Amino acid sequence: MQTKLLYLLWFLALFHPFRLLNSFSGGLSILFKIQTVLLYAMTLVWLLSGKKKTNYPVLLGIVILHVFGTLFIAYNTGYAREVTRIIFEAYLLGLITFSFFRAREHVDKLFTMFAYSFLFFAIFGIMGKGLVRWDYGLSDENQFGVFMGMGVFFCLYYAMGQPQGKRRLIGLITSALCLVGVI
């Protein structure tokens, strides 16, 4: 149950399906809250579980540095609050993932989701001529190119770690599509 909810949270974090749905109908922005509610429910499950709570002080340091940096340095903290929420939620999701995903199969499935998310955004970005118009983060050519640059090498690494077969082929094709997305 917990791993299925965690996979769902990673799916929502990687593929942004609610942003895609909202692009077709602007009134669906309430759906964005579902991911946050599910994450906080999973956090509660994690806190109440008997799993060992791992502590990653470097990740926590980044979150704290960002929060205090936006409090004292930022002139307009409105946008910074949204970024802070995203960073904090990524931190929580990472801590929970490190606690529940201990088996190789879990990590392999998560890496497969990452590779497919690069494929998903590469297809939309190439069709959109360097933009993923429905995603506010990737609707800028500069951000999309950098994201695809990460995808080139992640998917190449993913493909080389797979045995001969469909996953390896998909990793190589995704890496090539990401390279096209960079250009």
Put the structure in a nutshell.
With 183 residues, this protein is an all-alpha fold. It has 8 helices and no strands. It has helices at 2-15, 17-24, 32-48, 57-72, 77-100, 104-127, 141-160, 166-182.
Topology:
Layout: H1 2-15, H2 17-24, H3 32-48, H4 57-72, H5 77-100, H6 104-127, H7 141-160, H8 166-182
What does this protein structure show overall?
This protein is mainly alpha-helical and 183 residues long. 77% of the residues lie in helices and 0% in strands. It has helices at 2-15, 17-24, 32-48, 57-72, 77-100, 104-127, 141-160, 166-182. Helix 1 (2-15) runs antiparallel to helix 3, helix 6 runs antiparallel to helix 7 (141-160) and helix 7 (141-160) runs antiparallel to helix 8. It starts with a helix and ends with a helix.
